[in-house]
Specification:
The structure is a homodimer. By secondary structure, chain A is α/β, with parallel strands linked by helices. Chain A folds into 2 domains: 207 residues, Rossmann fold, CATH 3.40.50; 91 residues, 3-Layer(aba) Sandwich (Rossmann fold), CATH 3.40.50. In chain A, 46% of the residues lie in helices and 15% in strands. In chain A, the strands form 2 sheets. Chain A has a 6-stranded mixed sheet, sandwiched between helices. A 4-stranded parallel sheet of chain A has the order 5-4-3-6, sandwiched between helices.
Chain lengths: 321, 321
């Protein structure tokens, strides 16, 4: 499954090319502010709302960059991936827009809303157990059988360059940011932020936010090498996957710090955002706000970009129900 | 409680003056679109998102217009109202911004989230039973005791002129609208739409959407005179109040038609909007979409402005739970 692409580190020219390539297939999502949230945190927060993105998450940026960068010959065999959810439906969406097959390996425990959305976009699902080990084994079988192009959810340089277009838009939309914070799972979004900001705004601090119960990136960052858990358990289901070599490159070189929050803090921050900002977002998106509330000394008085990563939540299984 | 103001019909100069007066205290809310919703309905829908408004609802427009139009002498005694919710917290918000007292009579059954928000803005609540009769009796006592200026939730010309600023913004934000649709309870928002559109875009059709289980406006419209129910029962708790003479003037003269939807249709449309558009909105806001889905022949091929009236919903009591 490893090829030349996966060990190529994307540069900012790749980001510019990605942005041109994907523009017809993505939204330039709005940035929302909230006086209540500013008063609560003592910071000026600018929420980049990728929950309003096509297919409901930022992952459509990276997926579209991969799909629309394929040669016709490669594209004919389709694309394949494993994903805990949003990359799966983003890749299905992008493949659908190009009219090529999309094969997805998903944990059987993934939210039904995400499985239905993948099928709605025309993707084909093969289920695996909810562990990294099972996921990779089942995927190998699907990949070998179909010959489809493997688009890794985050360790693919095409994907990282695509995700980097999000923070590029944010920098165009908000002047004078001091800090950007995003949730971290496999590190695709955070790597995209690092790629963009290290090139066009190297003074901006980059924070990553992670659930305490899936804190492998935090421990990796402190240890100086990748530590991977096989099956962490958190309500922030998009953040259960480990760092890989390409995202580790960016995280280890450009991230200022990684902060963590408990499940209760994440749920409180999620509910508060729904109540006060009137937006539907996933638990993963609440981890940054939870860590900002928990660490006021880090953010007080700063202008902070906060990436709201996606809105594909199962409304019948909200964490406060 | 009736004075000269309540029988004055506002004109478009009042709307322009209101817009200038309230601009520092309100948001110019965004207009969202959804390819999914367009494909579902066969219409082009433009959602004016007053759920993102200050205090979480369009009612802050009318309330602010009333509060900031008071003389200092009048203002010193404060303002008072009865309301099923959003007008209560909007008036509390506006009074708080001006630094004057706000007395609110609310049904004891109103959502806890709304009561807490009224108190959070500094309003004082007196509870009544959930019927129009009880509400008006309790209010008379509060009004007599405090001498506060009565700001009716919708039958006040200052309030109607304030609500009219919403459709004025919508017309600036979207070109070529054929129709506008809004939920109808007491008729404040619909009257505001009539006031604006009859002046600046008289070719635009105005539809009102009402729950079948609180269809007094529908029956009034068909009968040609006001019919009021005392205590209708619907999940759309903002729409339980009857038309009054000032709103009847606009509704009877300028509304194209009133359409109704069942509770189930309202809940389905609400959940669909949360799922696909990722916005938190009240059941009342889903009534227009429910009627658009139910009456495709009325809206197909049209450019339709849809007023999303508010987002103050109790997240612990969602109707599909």
């Amino acid at each position: 499954m490893k090829d030349a692409l996966t060990t190529h580190i994307p540069d900012f020219d790749d980001v510019i090319a990605a942005h041109e390539r994907i523009r017809p297939y993505i939204h330039r999502t709005p940035v929302l502010t909230s006086q209540f949230m500013n008063e609560l945190t003592g910071a000026e927060l600018f929420f980049k709302c990728e929950n309003f993105q096509k297919a409901g998450a930022f992952k459509v940026r990276g997926a579209s960059n991969a799909v629309f960068g394929l040669s016709d010959e490669q594209a004919a065999k389709g694309v394949a991936t494993h994903s805990s959810g949003n990359h799966a439906l983003s890749l299905s969406y992008a493949a659908g827009r190009r009219g090529i097959p999309c094969h997805v390996v998903m944990p059987r425990t993934a939210p039904e809303a995400k499985k239905a959305a993948v099928r709605g976009y025309g993707g084909t699902i093969t289920e695996c157990e909810p562990s990294t080990t099972s996921r990779e084994a089942v995927f190998a079988e699907v990949h070998d059988r179909t010959g489809a192009d493997f688009v890794h959810p985050y360790n693919d340089p095409r994907v990282i360059a695509g995700q980097a277009t999000c923070s590029r838009e944010l920098m165009e939309q908000v002047e004078g940011l001091d800090q950007v914070i995003a949730p971290i799972g496999g590190g695709g979004m955070v790597s995209g932020c690092c790629l963009t900001l290290s090139n066009i705004a190297p003074h901006v601090e980059i924070y990553a936010a992670e659930p305490e119960q899936a804190d492998d990136a935090y421990r990796s960052f402190k240890a100086g090498h990748i530590i991977a858990d096989d099956a962490p358990n958190t309500i922030a289901d998009g953040l259960k996957v480990p760092l890989k070599e390409n995202t580790w490159h960016f995280v280890s070189n450009y991230v200022t710090d990684i902060l963590t929050a408990t499940e209760e803090e994440i749920i409180d921050a999620m509910k508060l955002t729904w109540q006060r900002m009137k937006i539907v977002m996933e638990p993963s998106c609440a981890v940054p706000l939870a860590t900002i509330i928990k660490n006021p000394e880090v953010f007080r008085g700063k202008r902070v970009g906060v990436i709201i990563t996606g809105g594909n939540v199962d409304l019948d299984k909200l964490p406060w129900m």
